[in-house]
Design brief:
The complex is a heterodimer of chains A (443) and B (498).
Chain A (H helix, E strand, L loop, with lengths): L10 H7 L13 H14 L14 H4 L5 E2 L10 H7 L7 E6 L2 E2 L13 E5 H7 L1 H7 L10 H8 L5 E5 L9 E7 L5 E11 L4 E10 L5 E11 L4 E8 L5 E11 L4 E8 L4 E10 L5 E10 L4 E10 L5 E10 L4 E10 L7 E10 L5 E10 L5 E9 L3 H8 L5 H17 L5 H19 L2
Parallel strand pairs in A: 1-7, 2-6, 5-7, 6-8, 7-9, 8-10, 9-11, 10-12, 11-13, 12-14, 13-15, 14-16, 15-17, 16-18, 17-19, 18-20
Antiparallel strand pairs in A: 2-3, 4-5
Helix pairs in contact in A: 2-7, 5-6, 8-9, 9-10
Chain B lengths: L5 H9 L15 E3 L6 H10 L4 H19 L24 E3 L13 H10 L3 H7 L10 E7 L2 E5 L2 H6 L3 E4 H7 L1 H7 L10 H9 L4 E5 L8 E7 L10 E6 L4 E9 L7 E3 L2 E6 L4 E9 L11 E11 L5 E8 L4 E4 L2 E4 L5 E10 L4 E4 L2 E4 L5 E11 L3 E10 L7 E11 L4 E10 L5 E10 L2 H8 L5 H17 L4 H15 L5
Parallel strand pairs in B: 3-7, 6-8, 7-9, 8-11, 9-12, 10-13, 11-13, 12-14, 13-15, 13-16, 14-17, 15-18, 16-19, 17-20, 18-21, 19-21, 20-22, 21-23, 22-24
Antiparallel strand pairs in B: 1-2, 3-4, 5-6
The chains are: A alpha/beta (443), B alpha/beta (498).
């Protein structure tokens, strides 16, 4: 047994220690859930490439590195000027800053939030909003199903708690700035719980940043509850450095006639795995999953999505696009699951990859698993190079080959950006993508 | 308003009158060895077939590999979307040959039981005559190598083919008469280490067909083989090897029906195809083994490894299949596109009903430059069946300008069945162009309405639509087979009338 209060164990030490050893010694306030998760994790273990869901990502190898388990209670060393750089220009958002998984109110700016909106630390909410947290936390992200959910749930459980009451419309978006800052190679776990009340409307933007150059590995789990007729957009923008890896799980539960759109952008990071699982669990739901990844160097990004149609009369649409260059690897593995009762389901899925280098790889595995007959489901997947005819057209108009490619790829990526419901956000992302492509192609 | 709805139709399909049409047992004396798998059994099979030493050695190597796989709990392929009990490999008899092995000279000498079987299989009288060597110059010739319970009973047209240098015979004869060819190519495309069932097949394969097309020869007729599983509890382990030299062409047909059985019969065949420069091989299959009853009792386990290699430049391998039978199907005819500009094709219709389960698809491995592949897969599910497409398209780093198009469509008849698509697309070259699309839906109400308002009855309309759905694939079958294929598909939908 390691004395977890005295010294921070490494991830491996923690895993080897076996059940009953909670990270940082905090066994409350979610003791029962955490104990169950720990048992589940010990049963599941770190997945290997033999697990079908991890076929293209060797996560076990990535975790062999000796990461320290980061103590989220340690005083963060991030100041206001750093955070200013992370704010998205023109977004005019309420800002919540989270350093190493802990909410830092001093750096945040949530003034003027309308009544009925609560945003803050999950650990504090466990006391202040005890019954709500109790009712929802761990109810959707199943610890038995996935090792990283179990690992996250077994840990300290700190992160963001957001609750929007019935019929509240947020006029301004919320930006949640996640910063990882540590001196030692560290394993950072964050847990978020977002509750969107009936008929509410909001745009939430999560941005991820690394403030230091040491190797970090994030294991993030967000549970999102979208109640009846709520209309929610959630953007996750991953622009961390080459030493930052993460497994990011987004678990969405939708009630009747709700609208939810996830926008997942991966422009940075070393190894990134995104698990986006949506469960439209009542009639009349609309679910959109959009994804964009632009990779270079040694980057490895694996987008794993599941739309689990459990109830009739729902609509889901999925569009993922990726550009892989250098020695990078892009993976798209999306599954549409239509259960026996989910008649009248309309589900669409499209994934497209562009491979720019012979050393880069792109794997896609779009799956349909259908048990209801009165459905319309389809998927399409294409992988290829930049169309030579298109390049020729632009070159005949005076663009260089690299300029032509950059422009065509910008247009390819822009189709994902247009799905965002905020002008300033679109402008910001377009510029980010353009810079990225120009740097990559025009050097 | 019509009272006969799609649901009635499905109910009818499920309780299809008369049951399995091709379910019958031929009472031929069978020479069966005791159940179980052991080195003695492998040696006995080899001895019974009078095989040379090298063949026995190869079998034993495969057998030892099976043993190591059996020791390891991970040995058994469980990744498929299938739910069944793993066969007891010690409860299977690994060899069965018809007791009499006559050389037929006239029709009278032929066992009437066998002729009866041919008839019910739909082999025309003329072909039956050919089988026993009676000249008949009418109609298109089809050479049939009948495999009944693993041993080739008769081979026709051998002489005619031999004039062109084509070798078409049973594997046993090939091992005896053309050992160099067999030794060179057997296991070169599907090594015994490939998977558990390939290993098992390599150790205990009973017979199969061998086909060799010499350089520049276009095989003048469709070569066809009927596989049947006959003796109760006998696994059928055929091994087919097709070698097509530079510029050769062959179209090979394989069709199967099986007698009704209550215990699960295991069928684990291996098919290997080698296509050299400018060669083309077309391999067509109709599979209609006993699928078990509606509760899923009985039926054939069909675990097949089929793979071809386009070794030479501009070579082509095409797989076409109509899968309507078997309780459990596990089958992925693949093409390794090694030669530059080589072409691989996969056309498939899989129909499942009752409690059938199918996990089938293909693998296209692009190694050579400008290689092309096309995959068109149509699945129809009814009853409580599950029908999965699982396919891999892999473009290797050096496969410049490779091209693939895949299309997988599924049709659902009823709300208790499942249709699934699991494509794997792995691209390692920037000039590759790969497209995949899949759709799943039920029969369109607008299509039904259109047919019916023109006076077509509801069940005929459904037949029409399902046949139209599959037509693209059925049209790829050689003419002789297309007829049988359509017949089979309509039998599957037959119970709907009335």
């Amino acid at each position: 047994m390691i004395d977890t209060l005295e010294q921070t164990p490494t991830l491996r030490e923690w895993i080897e220690a076996g059940p009953g050893d909670y990270v940082n010694g905090h066994a409350t306030p979610f003791a029962a859930l955490r104990a169950r998760a720990r048992t589940a994790f010990d049963h599941l273990g770190i997945p290997t490439r033999k697990d079908e869901a991890w076929k293209y990502t060797n996560i076990e190898k990535a975790l062999r590195h000796d990461y320290a388990l980061l103590d989220s209670d340690a005083t963060p060393i991030v100041d206001a000027s750093d955070v200013a750089d992370y704010r998205i220009d023109g977004l005019d958002a309420y800002t919540l800053v989270v350093v190493n998984g802990t909410v830092v109110p001093e750096l945040s700016d949530t003034d003027g939030l309308p009544a009925g909106v609560h945003i803050g630390s999950l650990r504090e909410a466990a006391t202040s909003h005890a019954d709500v947290v109790e009712r929802h936390l761990g109810q959707y992200a199943d610890v038995e199903s996935e090792a990283f959910i179990a690992l996250n749930t077994a840990s300290d459980l700190n992160g963001v708690f957001l609750q929007i009451d019935k019929s509240v419309t947020l006029e301004r978006p919320i930006q949640i700035v996640h910063v990882t800052n540590t001196d030692e190679d560290a394993f950072v776990q964050t847990r978020n719980l977002y509750l969107f009340g009936e008929n509410s409307e909001a745009l939430v933007v999560e941005t991820y940043h690394s403030a230091s150059d040491v190797k970090t590995f994030g294991n993030r789990v967000s549970e999102v509850v979208v109640e009846r007729a709520a209309r929610i957009n959630l953007l996750q923008l991953q622009t961390e450095g080459d030493n930052a890896s993460q497994v990011n799980t987004l678990q969405i539960e939708q009630d009747a006639a709700s609208y939810f759109a996830a926008h997942t952008y991966t422009l940075g990071g070393a190894l990134v795995r995104n698990n986006v699982n949506a469960v439209p669990n009542a009639e009349g739901c609309e679910t959109h999953l959009y994804g964009l990844y632009i990779l270079d160097g040694e980057q490895h990004v694996d987008n794993h999505t599941l739309v689990d149609h459990a109830k009739p009369n729902c609509f889901s649409n999925e569009l993922y696009r990726g550009i892989v260059d250098g020695r990078s690897t892009g993976v798209f593995n999306g599954k549409v699951f239509v259960r026996r009762d989910a008649q009248q389901t309309n589900a669409y899925q499209s994934s497209q990859g562009v491979v720019l280098s012979d050393d880069a790889s792109h794997h896609s595995k779009p799956e349909l698993e259908i048990y209801a007959d009165d459905v319309k489901c389809s998927h399409g997947s294409t992988t290829g190079e930049v169309e030579p005819e298109h390049v020729f057209y632009l070159r005949s108009r005076g663009l260089s080959e690299q300029q032509a490619k950059s422009l065509l790829l910008y247009a390819f990526a822009h189709d994902i950006v247009t799905e965002l419901p905020h002008e300033a956000l679109r402008t910001y992302l377009d510029a980010l993508i353009e810079d990225r492509l120009n740097a990559q192609l025009l050097g | 308003m019509p009272t006969y709805t799609e649901h009635d139709l499905i109910a009818d399909i499920e309780k299809e009158e008369g049951g399995y049409k091709y379910g019958f047992v031929t009472e031929t004396d069978a020479d069966t060895i005791p159940k179980g798998l052991s080195e003695e059994v492998v040696r006995l099979i080899s001895e019974k077939k009078g095989e040379p030493e090298w063949m026995l050695e190869w079998r034993l190597k495969a057998y030892r590999h099976v043993l190591t796989l059996l020791e390891d709990d991970e040995h058994y392929p469980r990744w498929a979307h299938l739910d069944y009990t793993e066969p007891d490999f010690q409860a299977i008899s690994y060899y069965s040959a018809p007791g009499k092995k006559p050389k037929y000279n006239s029709l009278d000498e032929v066992d009437p039981e066998l002729l009866e079987t041919f008839e019910r299989l739909g082999i025309s009288l003329m072909e039956q005559k050919r089988l026993v060597g009676i000249e008949d110059k009418e109609t298109m010739p089809v050479a049939v190598d009948v495999v009944m319970d693993s041993v080739s009973v008769a081979t026709t047209f051998k002489e005619e083919l031999a004039k062109q240098g084509i070798i078409f015979c049973s594997m046993g004869e090939a091992i005896e008469n053309h050992p160099d060819l067999v030794r060179e190519y057997i296991g070169s495309v599907v090594p015994y280490t490939d998977n558990f069932y390939a290993a098992l097949n390599s150790a205990v394969f009973s017979d199969g067909s061998f086909c060799y097309i010499p350089k520049g020869v276009r095989c003048p007729m469709e070569l066809s083989t009927y596989f049947r599983i006959n003796a109760a509890g006998t696994g059928q382990f055929e091994r087919t090897l097709i070698v097509c030299e530079d510029g050769g062409y062959v179209s090979y047909l394989e069709g199967c029906t099986a007698p009704m059985r209550d215990e699960n019969q295991l069928h684990a065949a291996v098919v290997e195809i080698i296509a050299k420069e400018d060669a083309e091989v077309k391999y067509s299959t109709i599979q209609n083994w006993y699928p078990g009853n509606d509760e899923g009792v009985g039926g054939v386990y069909n675990f097949v490894t089929k793979r071809g290699i386009c070794e030479g430049k501009r070579s082509k391998i095409s797989w076409t299949q109509l899968e309507t039978g078997s309780a459990v199907t596990w089958k992925y005819p693949s093409v390794i596109l090694k030669g530059d500009d080589s072409v691989g094709e996969f056309y498939s219709v899989a129909f499942t009903k009752g409690a059938q389960q199918a996990d089938t698809g293909t693998k296209m491995i692009h190694l050579g430059k400008r290689t092309k592949s096309t995959i068109i897969s149509k699945g129809v599910s009814a009853g409580t069946s599950n029908n999965s497409y699982r396919g891999l398209v892999k473009i290797n780093k050096k496969a410049e300008g490779a091209r693939n198009f895949s299309q997988c469509d599924s049709l659902l008849l009823g709300d208790k069945c499942g249709a699934h698509t699991f494509p794997y697309i792995e691209i390692n070259n920037s000039t590759a162009k790969v497209e995949h699309e899949a759709t799943t839906s039920k029969v369109g109400e607008d299509q039904m309405f259109y047919c019916m308002q023109r006076g077509i009855s509801e069940q005929d309309a459904l037949n029409l639509i399902v046949n139209g759905f599959a037509k693209q694939i059925l049209a790829k079958l050689p003419m002789e087979f297309a007829v049988e294929a359509q017949k089979l598909l309509s039998i599957q939908l037959e119970g709907s009338v009335g």
